[in-house]
Amino acid sequence: MSRNAESTAFRSALEVIRAVEPRVADAIGAELTDQRESLKLIASENYASPATLLAMGNWFSDKYAEGTVGRRFYAGCQNVDTVEALAAEHARELFGAAHAYVQPHSGIDANLVAFWAVLADRVESPALKKAQVRQVNDLTEADWFALRRELGNQRMLGMSLDAGGHLTHGFRPNISGKMFDQRSYGTDPTTGLIDYDRVAEAAREFKPLILVGGYSAYPRKVNFRILREIADSVGATFMVDMAHFAGLVAGKVFTGDFDPVPHAHIVTTTTHKSLRGPRGGMVLCQPELADQVDRGCPMVLGGPLPHVMAAKAVALAEARRPDFADYAQRIVDNAQALAEGLLSRGATLVTGGTDNHLVLIDVSGYGLTGRQAEQALLDSGIVTNRNSVPQDPNGAWYTSGIRVGTPALTTRGLGTAEMDQTAELIHTVLTQTTAGANADGTPSKAKYTLDAGLADKIARQATDLLATYPLYPGIDLS
Ligand code: DSN
């Protein structure tokens, strides 16, 4: 691929956009500049390839294609069929999955499709027979009421939010928390690790319909074989949300007990995090759930996004190349180097380190809340996000943690030496930031002071660190 082709493609696209609304073209250009100049450590972000980005910017966006491949509610979907089938094939091959559904628009959509598929599957066999209806859509409200009672009011057991679980795993502010009666498993207060015996105990007591594995802020591997055994022991469906670590599964860093695909009945993911694809979601499942999963649209999804499915096919094809495994391993090597660098300088890390792509710093050791630390780092050109730590005294808004992840910087080419330098920059900012006070003298959870000169100096050092690793080196918009 000639670099010139990438520059020409994006320059031409911006020229066309600029002729209609120049402010949008300017914002797109500014976003590239901002992304190029910032040290991006957000664990859930990455940089998709130019091919993936370009696959999204075209007339596939114009097409409605509700239904599934070869069985659409609209005419003229032959080309959408091609890209959807390709994306699903790449996903099945990449993850060794029996079935792949690539229509979900996001992670929450993928989880909704999965929840509905499990519920429908559970109620259809015995209950539909009883109700003498053909499929779950035909159930009356009274049928549903009776079924919910029969199913133990749709219980879900997932990882608690402050231990690193995700909002969509049954928590109140999310629809999953309204659909399901939820209980959480946490982590061991001393080690910060999942205590599988406690999970088994909670499952025995609660008898969930769905046991959920997966996380968005847990820095360790999870043993999915054990979780499947726990699910089986109580007759639960085992679902894994691998959105954060899908790239590590694709790149065969997580194999055997740590690969969710052979162990879970159903696996959901986003495609834009460590997997490095377009912004979207996906569901993988065992054959017995395939029919229900394919009813995702129109049950909980609107029309699929064919342009994004095209980009998913491109990104998944990229992830099947041998160099993706090398990339996935470097993500983990970098996270471990970053963890080592922070630990050696005196930081406190949840679980004391990492096995995956993320590190969770407990910033209370620096006398700061997560919010203060996040802002001070941002002032210094380092983009992170605040995150709860287990049993966080500061709650989910202020928090006591900073989550840092390496997928994006690894894509740029930074390695373990640069991770040590990054640890130095983070540690310097956090040690030089002082928590502020409210007007009445009480400690503030948001205010802080950091010398502006120091913040500028760190930001320059961050830019210098990135200079050797240009982002999108083939794209010159000038
Ligand atoms: N917002 C994503 C994250 O940052 O982990 C998960 O939904």
Automatic annotation (TrEMBL):
The modification N6-(pyridoxal phosphate)lysine is found at K273. The keyword Amino-acid biosynthesis applies. Keywords: Amino-acid biosynthesis, Cytoplasm, Methyltransferase, One-carbon metabolism, Pyridoxal phosphate, Transferase. Its main location: cytoplasm. Pfam families: SHMT (PF00464). HAMAP family: SHMT. The record marks H272 as: Plays an important role in substrate specificity. GO terms for molecular function: glycine hydroxymethyltransferase activity; methyltransferase activity; pyridoxal phosphate binding. Residues 19-120, 153-426 form the Serine hydroxymethyltransferase-like domain. Belongs to the SHMT family. It catalyses: (6R)-5,10-methylene-5,6,7,8-tetrahydrofolate + glycine + H2O = (6S)-5,6,7,8-tetrahydrofolate + L-serine. Catalyzes the reversible interconversion of serine and glycine with tetrahydrofolate (THF) serving as the one-carbon carrier. This reaction serves as the major source of one-carbon groups required for the biosynthesis of purines, thymidylate, methionine, and other important biomolecules. Also exhibits THF-independent aldolase activity toward beta-hydroxyamino acids, producing glycine and aldehydes, via a retro-aldol mechanism. Pathway: One-carbon metabolism; tetrahydrofolate interconversion; Amino-acid biosynthesis; glycine biosynthesis; glycine from L-serine: step 1/1. Its cofactor is pyridoxal 5'-phosphate. The lineage of its organism: Bacteria, Bacillati, Actinomycetota, Actinomycetes, Micromonosporales. InterPro entries: PyrdxlP-dep_Trfase, PyrdxlP-dep_Trfase_major, PyrdxlP-dep_Trfase_small, Ser_HO-MeTrfase, Ser_HO-MeTrfase-like, Ser_HO-MeTrfase_PLP_BS, SHMT-like_dom. One of its GO terms (biological process) is tetrahydrofolate interconversion. Homodimer. Gene3D superfamilies: Aspartate Aminotransferase, domain 1 (3.90.1150.10), Type I PLP-dependent aspartate aminotransferase-like (Major domain) (3.40.640.10). The gene is glyA. GO terms for cellular component: cytosol. This is Serine hydroxymethyltransferase. Its EC number is 2.1.2.1. Coiled coil: none annotated. (6S)-5,6,7,8-tetrahydrofolate binds at L161, G165, H166, L167. It comes from Micromonospora saelicesensis.
